[in-house]
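pinned: reference chain
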Amino acid sequence: MLSFTQLFPIGDDNRNVRHVPFVMYLLIAANAAVFFLLQLHHPQFTYGYSVIPREILSGVDLVHKVGQIPQAPGPQPIYLTLFTAMFMHGSILHLAGNMLYLWIFGDNVEDAMGHGRFLIFYLICGLAAAFAQIAVAPHSAIPTLGASGAIAGVLGGYLLLFPRKRVRVLVGCLGIIELSAFIVIGGWIFIQFINGVGQLSAVTQNDTGGVAYLAHVGGAVAGLFLTPFFRKRRLG
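pinned: its structure tokens
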């Protein structure tokens, strides 16, 4: 049986997009710039500006003030890492995968919401994802980073706004096929939830590494909840 993990989105139907999605372009450019200009040349930046649950709950930069973990000093106040971590990635593949999803699904959502609303929506979904991860592992000192949570919110918005829109996916040896957004994105969210529930059993105060599946779920749920308040116009 075909697994949702084998579905790799490569495009969708953009015929109804009426406006240039310049916020989406700026977000992609910002993520790429942070990775190539800062993270590649200054590894300490990655550690200092990632989200660390214990720092957020204590309000203390664990390195700059306490010296508990091997990272460079973060921003002041340390809560700013909730935003900076959204624009950082662990590898070029991590960056490329996230930006591909934003490129495919972000333009339709931005068009439906408007530029300013879309930017606020994106950032709020990223914050929701970060807080979901903090709730799962509040005492963790392991850095968390990536745009995945915010982009999961965009996917949730797309699912609510365009459940029947066709998405082109690459499916292993079957090649390229078209499936509804309900199947592609709904399946992705379901897999994140299942993996997240399984991950909970392995979470301890000292072992919270790996993919932040429940952060993805938190971002997607935020996107589903917030989209009705952020949509600019009714869609046919």
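why pinned: The domain at 19-205 is CATH 1.20.1540 (Rhomboid-like fold). Strands lie at 7-12, 166-171, 175-180.
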